[in-house]
Write a structure and sequence with these properties.
The structure is a homodimer.
Chain A (H helix, E strand, L loop, with lengths): L1 H7 L13 E5 L2 E2 L6 H16 L7 E4 L1 H9 L8 H16 L2 E2 L5 E2 L1 E6 L11 E4 L5 H9 L2 H19 L4 H15 L9 H19 L7 H15 L3 H9 L9 E6 L10 E6 L11 E6 L3 H6 L5 E2 L3 H4 L1 H18 L3 E8 L2 E9 L4 H13 L5 H7 L6 H4 L2 E2 L6 E5 L1 E4 L2 E7 L2 H9 L4 E5 L7 H6 L2 E4 L7 H9 L2 E4 L4 E4 L4 E4 L2 E4 L3 E5 L4 E4 L4 E2 L5 H13 L3 E5 L3 H9 L5 E5 L7 H12 L3 H25 L4 E5 L13 H11 L3 H11 L11 H6 L1 H20 L5 E6 L5 H22 L6 E6 L2 H5 L1 H4 L5 E4 L1 H9 L7 H9 L16 H15 L4 E4 L7 H9 L4 E4 L4 H16 L1
Parallel strand pairs in A: 4-5, 17-18, 18-19, 19-20, 27-28, 27-34, 28-29, 29-30, 30-31, 31-32, 32-33, 33-34
Antiparallel strand pairs in A: 1-2, 1-3, 3-8, 6-7, 6-8, 9-10, 9-12, 10-11, 12-13, 14-26, 15-25, 16-20, 17-24, 21-22, 22-23, 24-25
Helix pairs in contact in A: 5-6, 6-8, 7-8, 14-15, 14-20, 15-20, 20-35, 21-23, 22-23, 23-27, 24-25, 27-28, 34-35
Chain lengths: ~900, ~900
């Protein structure tokens, strides 16, 4: 009576009486369609769409997401009118199917599934076989003539309802089943007969009652309404909330509820169940692919007790069904214009489709399918470009583990550089080099790496570090080399002295095999077989399409002629960042560099630098040659000097001997170079200001190399980049010194080359005063690694400790060292570009931080009007694709 | 003929023929006045003004700064018409004085002096006695009947002309004079007779010829024009350019040139010379003060051969001249409304004023004079406020060295905390404490200080560090304590083992006396007598006037009840920054803190924190009591945890024993806390996110203390400040946790207090997203130390190495850790305030970095609309005055 009065009063809510909460599908006609995902959820919309396409789908109805929203508006009460609409649709369903809900004769059983507009695996599970009770189960026995089947269905229903709807801990049910099997001395569920299962049902009901303090509901209407309640409630459970937060799913009304007639694949030899893909999801080949099992339910396939048969076999077993399925495959693929992942059930010779969705696929398959579908005129080139997740290309560019291999994970770190690697553990760079020379494949394991380790990193198959983030030295260098790296693996405790590490309870010694998955961060014990990178013609076609669409140029970060060549093969259109410091470590170079550092005065420094000049010039000549015709941006010396001197006593003594100076001198120099925060210390252009002779030598080496190569007919476009600039005066002072050097070289060489002098924008202040700096700088390259570090105040080498918490607690949506923080760092970038171009209209702007290879960041760079992005060689194809997608997304 | 043609052609330049380049003064009438500083320079304008006031000034004329500018426009040629105007004015001068330039009879001699609109000690010196040659000197002998005088004048002229105009190295002239005295076996110049000097003149001329390859010019017109050229040229010499760059002197046309009749104080017993001040420049007492010497020149006073007499004596010696001088004193002070510093010469019974300017004075005198002049109705209160340079108040607030003491400087560091201190050297904090307990005065000498040294810093008279900048730990803490500190003294090399340090060639051992001048950065060997701080009633009056004008509130940075009391005495209107970490070091506290750090899980941490709770609460209760009625902003724990654990092996063993745990555990923990860049590491609110129990304990301690004190009748206004926030989510997460704690305390205590929760804006990103953060934060306090570090990318502990270069080379105008960088950091501050107040109109905004006590920064804070600045207790009066000046300057 009370509710009657309320609704009669005509409150705002009572008006919704007339609102439609439920959409029916069945018998070739559905009230919804695929476009109604927001209202019906993904699953509901696709079921409706298939129904409308004339595909056999078990009839059912979908309760809308609006109903879920209204449920919350009303303090967890059903929307007015929902109960009537559910009842009406249930009636319609009974009529359509010729079955009756809750009836012993011809009983209608239903499944209930949640389904939001976005895929949300964190939400409620499915409840199957709803509608059973001790009465109905008898009807089912009669109808199916299969007592065991009926009791098993009942048993499963109680378990699912108890677990999913009433939150009775699942282990209690499992315990009963295990005990039963133990008593009978059998191993598998299938070994239980009807009587056994009947007893299980009895025990299940008791467990249910013990935990819920009520009897298991025998009224199917109560079962249904409680389950719908549970689905609604699941929308706001902590798991689902967390999932939405983490995946940035916003603006959804709620979940839909799908109530659908049960069909059974385990009703005998003319029944079966299967999963199929409209094309091969591993290879992309346009061949109908899948697996099926006769007289089985979906669960049985998963349980792995019987091996499913390949779909082709169905042609022999049930040729008509197979033909019907082939037609459905064609219809659905043509309809959705994408490879479909379908579930089907055959119930006593009749085929039902239970689900269709765009299928997951390997990167290799994704590329092939996209290119094929363009050839088949099914989709446009633009669509093909948009279909590939750029990061998935990593699978094509790096080795991967053979998916058939078994793996024993012992730790997990950050996926710092993609790929798969396997080898024997060594604990220092020298060992890595000497073992590799002897033909061993090794994995270099370090607490952290430093520039001195580069040789060993080169020699190793992969690198594992215990400390450091996604942009630590190990990570950055490994990505540059295209080498697999797992970084910041905190679970690994390394003892250099004993040459061993522990991970949990596992002890790994020098020479033991481990394997790394740089794409997931996983570390495995032992050898795991890898598969080499596989390119294809389709990949090149797709890349060409992307190139024709994108506006951004893609450059690469490369410090060596070899890297330059690799990057060029991957499509790099220039070097955006050539780090000169890596050139100071090999062989004699480090000796001359150290002489310079130890020097007391300018003359001594110049003498040491004179030794480095020809070496650097030679490097640049080779790089210019590799990049013939393309611009090469060279960053002058950036890291603090302490990175070039040894910190351990033994190495210091070695250095003293090599340089013929007292070790005390070296100790004192190293001590004087110590900094509390080297990141914010004496580095970058600050070194150039204190020791002008250093940058002068580098400018000379660059321009001499350029002049020499020009004479050889090579087209050179050197761009000299001053790092760490924060004020206009810093830049103009250094630039004017360089101009003098450059003019002098031109006179000496009696030739000239075009060149530019520009700067990194990596200090927040530089972005704030970009308008001033652009008065003198001819290009900007945003160094987003350092810019992110300083804008957030996060040291990339130290932030690992709290960044994980930050992302888990949702304080940060993404690791800002992986994807540009558009709100904060992005504000500085926008400011820098706007103000810079106000001063200098044609200012060339790019990015050379690690973000240059991150698809989301590439999209951002496009949106703010940069001219290019620069990334490590192996990410060039990813950036090319992402840049094209950025254009297409903004068009849409 | 050629020039005639040019000027007749009527080119742009020839039009300036009619322009006036020269202004005459003499005989009670001048063509210029004091307002024409830009055109006539400071000196020229004041000479004109005095002339117009009827004060006896030797006649002369001033060549304008425009003439200097035109000189450069014309490629270092005199402006058209200047020669004619100089000639005409010279004629006028001859007529006025009844003398003749270059004539043997009654010769006119002149002085030539540069003089720009701004005082520029880096420019050209003076040339005196110009107009002498071998002929004129004879006339001078006849006229003065003093042969020695005449030859001495000639000698001085050649030396000055040679040195200043022709750049003949001064030492050559000095060498001749020295040799002469050696030959004669005399000591002083005055012991040379006329003949000796005549010979010196001969030798000087030869030196001149050797160095310039021309004869010493005998034509007085040539002497004059060369000297004027030299003055013009001196405007652009490197010294002058550097000086202008460093002192930010811009927009000046050039220098003026003052040509003035020579008068001589050494023409016999009715001649003399002196310097006087219209009030006492040391004490400010309104008493005519000065010194004079009869029969002497200015140089003689400086040479210190004869002791000058106090001005009062002149009353007896030449009572009429004294009376005349008294009248001039009164006239000039009334005219300029400021204390005057005057130079006078009496030539044969006639008084001449050669200069007047506002006199330099001690801070003590400045305050007294300003207050007295208001009482005398000479100036307004506003003027009085503007007259005192805020930083000069340091002299009043800290001890100073007795100016009479002789000092031997051995090194110079940064003037990190003002004041003067003397004591015995100790090399660690423990020694400082124990020696002080035994009654010794000590200076604590450290490579750098850390929080563990606080006790020793307290016990010491002053602190000297070899490393670290103006905002290093030592500097910040010392300023907070009002204790003298010289930091970053790189010339000092410390050997802790030997307990000694070297500075240049000086070796200083433990127990040796040194003295520090924290206001200049100088380090002296031995004991130097100090004078205590001296307050006065006038100081209080001035401060009250300032308070009535200023809009900014002045708060203080104080961590202890004692600091709070001192600051309140100095006029602090609240605490803007109470750093809670300093509360964790004393006695038992550090033990509990370390227990917390060693804890493996939340329970253990909470147990350790429970021990800290009552201690913190007690601290806060005392601080609330000290600041009864005023707001107290408490910053939650900020520094990284490694600051609380010992890093040296011995201390780690001690800790292990004290805590009864294996030392290995401590070593491992300390190692795990190591960070590459602690500045950008796990600190501030990042600790609060990882260990919520820590901030919860602190919030509880604050609110419990507030409730307890409220019950005792004390008015409490706690403001809880979350440090290092960079994102809104960080802040809102922590705030919501705190709100729960606070509500719980209110329930337990059955009372409530008003409180605010706000944040530091010290991460660049926080300023960029301030609009979002203000959704939740009730106040902003700009932490400009860290904001400057991150905006520039300068670690304050490491930047010393290059900051000095940067300032010397003019890349930075000022140390950005001393004065807010308005262009870069300032842009973030403006952005933060604007965006913050867009979201929250009544957002309270302040600053709590070290900049809060820097006058230029205080002015900036006023200009951007902050509500308050907070600074160390001893800078509160400075900030009060600066805040008032900020208002008055913007009014003007």
């Amino acid at each position: 009576m009370a509710t009657m009065t309320k609704s009669k009063l005509g409150s705002k809510k009572s008006k919704s009486v007339s609102k439609r909460w439920v959409y029916f599908f069945g018998n070739g006609k559905a009230e919804g369609n695929a476009k109604m995902k927001q209202l019906l959820g993904g699953k509901g919309a696709n079921l409706a769409e298939m129904t409308n396409l004339g595909i056999p789908v078990p009839a059912g109805f979908t309760i809308t997401t609006e109903a879920c929203a209204e449920f919350y508006n009303r303090g967890k009460k059903w929307p007015v009118g929902l109960d009537a609409q559910v009842e009406a649709n249930l009636k319609k369903l009974e009529t359509t199917m010729g079955l009756k809900f809750g009836s012993r004769d011809n009983p209608l059983l239903v499944s209930v599934r949640s389904g939001a507009a976005a895929s949300m695996p964190g939400m409620m599970d499915t409840v199957l076989n709803l509608g059973l009770n001790s009465d109905v189960v008898q009807g089912l026995i009669i109808k199916t003539e299969n007592e065991r089947f009926a009791w098993d269905a009942y048993r499963r229903f109680i378990q699912m309802f108890g677990d999913v709807v009433m939150e009775v801990p699942r282990e209690h049910f499992e315990h009963v089943l295990d005990k039963k099997k133990q008593q009978l001395g059998v191993k598998n569920d299938v070994d239980l007969n009807a009587n056994d299962l009947k007893d299980v049902v009895r025990q299940y009901k008791k467990i249910y009652q013990d935990h819920t303090s009520e009897e298991f509901p025998s009224d199917p209407m109560v079962q249904l309404s409680k389950t719908i309640d549970a689905v609604f409630n699941s929308w706001n459970n902590p798991r689902a909330n967390k999932y939405r937060e983490l995946n940035d799913i916003r603006g959804l009304l709620g979940t839909a509820v799908n109530v659908q007639t049960m069909v059974f694949g385990n009703m005998g030899d003319t029944s079966g169940t299967g999963v199929c893909f409209s094309r091969n999801p591993s290879t992309g080949v346009n061949h109908f692919y899948g697996e099926f099992l006769m007289n089985a339910q979906g669960e049985d396939v998963v349980a792995g007790i019987r091996t499913p048969q390949p779909l082709d076999e169905l042609k022999k077993v049930m040729p008509e069904i197979y033909q019907q399925l082939c037609k459905i495959r064609e219809k659905l693929e043509n309809h959705y214009c994408d490879m479909q992942d379908m579930e089907f059930t055959i119930q006593q010779g009749k085929l039902y489709l239970l689900q269709t969705r765009n299928g997951k696929r390997t990167a290799h398959a994704a590329v092939k399918i996209a290119v094929d579908m363009v050839k088949e005129k099914m989709i446009s080139k633009d669509k093909a470009i948009l279909r590939i997740a750029p990061n998935d290309l990593n699978q094509l560019l790096h080795p991967t583990f053979d998916p058939k291999e078994k793996k024993q994970a012992i730790a997990k770190g950050l996926p710092a550089s993609p790929g798969a690697a396997t080898g024997k553990v060594v604990f220092n760079a020298d060992d890595a080099e000497s073992w590799a020379k002897n033909g061993e494949k090794v994995i270099l394991v370090r607490i952290e790496t430093s520039p001195e380790d580069i040789g060993g990193m080169h020699a190793a198959q992969g690198i594992l570090t215990a400390r450091g983030g996604m942009t630590s030295h190990a990570a950055v260098v490994a990505r540059g080399m295209g080498k697999c790296c797992v970084a910041g693996c905190e679970g690994v405790h390394i003892d250099y002295n004993k040459k061993e590490f522990t991970a949990g309870n596992t002890m790994v010694r020098e020479g033991d095999y481990i394997s790394l998955n740089g794409s997931t961060g996983e570390v495995y014990l032992g050898q795991v077989k890898t598969i080499d990178a596989q390119f294809s013609g389709d990949f090149s076609i797709l890349m060409k399409w992307a190139d024709s669409v994108r506006k951004l140029n893609i450059r690469t970060n490369a410090d060596t002629p070899l890297d330059s060549q690799i990057a060029r093969k991957f499509g790099a259109e220039g070097i955006g960042l050539c780090r000169t410091e890596h050139m100071f470590f090999e062989g004699d170079r480090i000796v001359a560099m150290r002489e310079m550092i130890l020097a007391d005065n300018k003359e001594q420094r110049e003498k040491a630098l004179a030794k480095l000049l020809p070496i650097q010039r030679d490097d640049f000549e080779k790089i210019f040659t590799a990049m013939n015709g393309l611009p090469v941006t060279i960053r002058l010396l950036d890291p603090p000097l302490h990175e070039f001197v040894p910190h351990e006593a033994a190495n210091q003594e070695e250095m003293a001997k090599a340089m013929n100076v007292p070790v005390e001198l070296i100790r004192r120099k190293v001590a004087s170079l110590h900094e509390f925060n080297p990141m914010l210390g004496h580095r970058g252009c600050r070194l150039g200001v204190t020791y002008p002779e250093m940058y002068n030598m580098q400018s000379r080496a660059i321009i001499e190399a350029a002049c020499n190569m020009k004479r050889k007919g090579i087209k050179v476009y050197p761009e000299i980049m001053i790092p760490l600039v924060g004020t206009l005066k810093e830049f103009s002072l250094l630039k004017s010194q360089m101009l003098q050097v450059i003019e002098k070289v031109f006179q000496e060489k009696k030739t000239k080359v075009d060149y530019k002098i520009g700067t990194m924008i990596e200090i927040p202040r530089a972005a704030l005063v970009a308008g001033r700096i652009a008065e003198e700088a001819e290009f900007f390259s945003f160094g987003t690694n350092d810019l992110t570090q300083m804008t957030f105040g996060y040291s990339r080498d130290d932030a690992g400790v709290f960044l994980k918490d930050y992302i888990e607690q949702g304080i940060l949506e993404k690791d800002p060292f992986t994807t540009v923080d558009q709100e904060g760092v992005g504000a500085l970038i926008r400011m820098g570009i706007t103000e810079g171009r106000k001063t200098r209209k044609d200012l060339k702007v790019g990015i050379c931080g690690e973000h240059g290879g991150d698809p989301a960041s590439v999209e951002f760079c496009h949106s703010v009007g940069m001219n290019y992005v620069s990334c490590s060689p192996f990410r060039v194809p990813i950036a090319r694709l992402a840049a094209a997608q950025a254009v297409l997304k903004r068009k849409a």
